[in-house]
Write a structure and sequence with these properties.
The protein has 13 helices and 15 strands. The chain is α/β, with parallel strands linked by helices and 446 residues long.
């Protein structure tokens, strides 16, 4: 299948600065950068504009050199697949350390790929670089760039070279209009709840690294999936544990959890993956609370439902009731019972996400909204905390994503929390907003 954007893959042995360069070129902090060799496991890709060229920039995991990572074989396999699909390779080496045997191995792999190669000598700002950097010219590559990914030195020349070699193949529809915006979906939850397995099922490919080891996913890895001509950008995140356990997990896990929380903040819809066999926990509630606070739409995916069969006819009802009690503030979130392992009901996930994303951006006409408000408040008048008579004069929807409403009154500056909840429930019953939080504000008319 022909790709719409050329793939540029960063290649190199551990700790030469691939992830730092990835973050510099994408102007993000997507890739985790630590002194720990082999920090990057998954293949991370991001669409980026470089010098007018639109490319898919790919950061590979630690494919080369010795490793004690139990998942190293899988890391290597995924990196090799990225290299085989590349249109251009960027071979990154460490000018401070000079050429080592592992660099020779990477160079051999790059040559055998049969695509253009740019050799990037990184860390040239270090005083120890110099003679070491010169050693790499003997590799025989025609295009060599000396840079500092950390400080940006020489990166502009590299960007110009990338743009010149890959060009731009911006996808357009039949009418020449740009592709529609892709809703961002963050898949979150505790470690080993089955997030990566679910994402692989949705993508219909073995895209995410999956194992029984807690903490397998480190980076926030995103992929695009198409459903009924609609595109969604799905981000698989690291499992979020309690803060005390994260601190004991070291620097890599601390940064992983930070990236997961950033993914929540940037998401349109959050899929909270809960281990059905264990039920919802306090940590699931904390994660859901962050999604609700960020104004995301929320879908609760009760994974591993295949393990729940044979427990009686009331299993689903009892599970949902217990989950609602634990996640009281997520009464608006749909619950799907599914199994990423068997594929059961996974097809419903994208359908539900699409419905939630649409509801989160729904706007109610002002006239229709005020007729609804007049009817509801006449039947159930509001009471202010001081028990003064309150009249709602009119209402307006002031925003979407999430839907936000302002009620203008004669005296009150806020409603009693129970009346506010009543209004939100009435709005949801009348206009839908399935899976989306609703924000409600009260203003005294001046």
């Amino acid at each position: 299948m022909r790709r719409s954007h050329p793939s540029v893959v960063l290649l190199g042995r551990p700790n030469v600065g691939k992830s730092t360069l990835f973050n510099r070129l994408t102007r993000t902090r997507r890739a985790i950068v630590t002194p720990v060799p082999g920090t990057t496991r998954d293949v991370i890709a991001q669409r980026v504009e470089l010098g007018g060229a639109s490319i898919d920039l790919v950061d590979t995991g630690g494919m080369f050199g010795a490793s004690e990572d139990p998942l190293q074989a899988e890391v290597v396999r995924r990196g090799q697949r990225a290299v085989s699909n590349a249109d251009l390779l960027v071979l990154v080496v460490d000018g401070r350390e000079g050429a080592v045997p592992a660099d020779q191995e990477v160079a051999r792999v790059a040559r055998s790929a049969g695509v253009p190669v740019l050799l990037v000598i990184n860390k040239i700002d270090d005083r120890r670089a110099g003679a070491g950097a010169m050693e790499f010219y003997q590799f025989g590559f025609d295009h060599v760039f000396e840079i500092s990914a950390e400080h940006g030195v020489g990166v502009a020349d590299l960007v110009d070279a990338l743009a010149a070699r890959v060009g731009s193949r911006e996808p357009q529809g039949d009418s020449g209009t740009p592709a529609p915006v892709e809703p961002a979906i963050a898949v979150v939850g505790r470690p080993n709840a089955g997030k990566s397995s679910l994402v692989n099922r949705l993508l219909r490919e073995d895209r995410m690294l999956v194992s029984d080891l807690p903490g397998t996913t480190r980076d926030a890895v995103d992929s695009v999936v198409t459903w009924h001509r609609r595109q969604f950008r799905i981000v698989d995140t690291a499992g979020i544990r309690r803060p005390g356990r994260v601190a004991r997990g070291g620097q890599v896990e601390t940064v992983s959890v930070l990236l997961a929380r950033r993914a929540i903040e940037a998401a349109d819809v959050v899929v909270l993956v809960v281990d059905a066999a264990e039920g919802a926990t306090d940590q699931d509630a904390a994660i859901a609370g962050e999604a609700d606070k960020a104004g995301c739409g929320v879908l609760v995916a009760a994974n591993k439902w295949d393990l729940m069969k044979g427990r009686g006819e009331r299993t689903a009802r009892d599970f949902d009731e217990a989950l609602r009690r634990r996640l009281k503030f997520l009464d608006y979130a749909p619950i799907l019972h599914l199994s990423a392992a068997t594929g059961e009901r996974v097809s419903k996930v994208l359908e539900t996400i699409d419905r939630i994303a649409e509801a989160r951006r729904r706007r109610i006409p002002t006239g229709e909204l005020n007729r609804f408000v007049e009817r509801v408040t006449a039947a159930h008048p509001p009471v202010s905390p001081g028990r003064r008579h309150v009249r709602v004069l009119y209402a307006a929807q002031t925003g979407v994503a999430p839907p936000t409403f302002v009620f203008f009154t004669n005296v009150a500056t806020r409603f009693h929390f129970s009346y506010e909840r009543f209004l939100i429930n009435q709005l949801r019953s009348e206009f839908g907003f399935a899976g989306s939080p609703i924000r409600l504000h009260v203003r005294k008319r001046g």
